[in-house]
Design a protein that fits this description.
The chain is α/β, with parallel strands linked by helices. Helix content is about 40%, strand content about 15%. The chain has one domain: Flavin prenyltransferase-like (Rossmann fold). The protein is globular, with a radius of gyration of 16 Å. The protein binds flavin mononucleotide.
């Protein structure tokens, strides 16, 4: 089932943090060993335009599947897609995934990852976090997801905003099982 390229889905929602998605998509689409599938929420393009400028569909550089295009290969477990990252993940989408509400291709694809016991990396962005958010994120961890908040680290002394973004995107790639050199790892020279 897993021979050939690694099949990875990226879902982009309308939380703040579109630059994380832009960087992740940029890295993954250049990888010959990765087959990339992309889906979005209703509000993703609006926040992308605000934060990155331009058009999400153009910038992605790969096909973006339709909001309700359940014929996409990664909408079914049998197609064998191995991993998905939801970047950034709004609290609304986190709630829907946590409760199995597969009302769009994105939430359906995330549901498939959980039911198939595959890798789902959820990158939430909100502050402060309320009890409802925390309970939904807890439910996601209980269901098998990796909750990897969009929290840059500073011990590697990022010199630019792009470097700080890479401290998050590098950790996402770690959990997607994609090798990279985006991070200065703790303990390495
Ligand atoms: C500029 C902007 C920034 C936003 N940032 C966040 C955020 O960081 N976290 C969040 O949960 N929602 C945020 N929202 C609100 C979501 O876009 C909104 O709740 C939306 O319904 C989420 O829908 P989706 O999950 O289908 O993308 C933001 C909205 C805008 C316009």
């Amino acid at each position: 089932m897993t021979g050939g390229r690694k099949k990875i889905v990226v879902g982009v929602t309308g939380a703040s943090g579109a630059p994380y998605a832009r960087r992740l998509l940029g890295v993954l689409r250049e990888r010959p060993d990765v087959e990339l599938g992309v889906c979005v929420s209703r509000t993703a393009a609006e926040v992308w335009a605000l934060e990155c400028g331009g058009d999400l569909a153009e910038a992605a550089g790969v096909r973006i599947w339709g909001l309700n295009d359940y014929k996409a290969p990664f909408a079914s477990g049998s197609a064998g897609w191995q991993a998905m990252a939801v970047v950034p993940c709004s609290m609304g989408t986190a709630a829907r995934i946590a409760h199995g509400i597969s009302d769009t291709l994105l939430t359906r694809a995330a549901d498939v990852m959980l039911k198939e016991r595959r890798t789902l990396v959820v990158v939430p962005r909100e502050t402060p976090l309320g009890l409802v958010h925390l309970e939904n994120l807890t439910a996601l961890v209980r269901a098998g997801a990796v909750v990897l908040p969009a929290m840059p680290s500073f011990y590697g002394k990022p010199a630019t905003l792009d470097d700080a973004i890479d401290t998050v995107v590098g950790r996402i790639l770690d959990h997607l099982g994609v090798e990279h050199r985006l991070l200065r790892r703790w303990g390495s020279a």
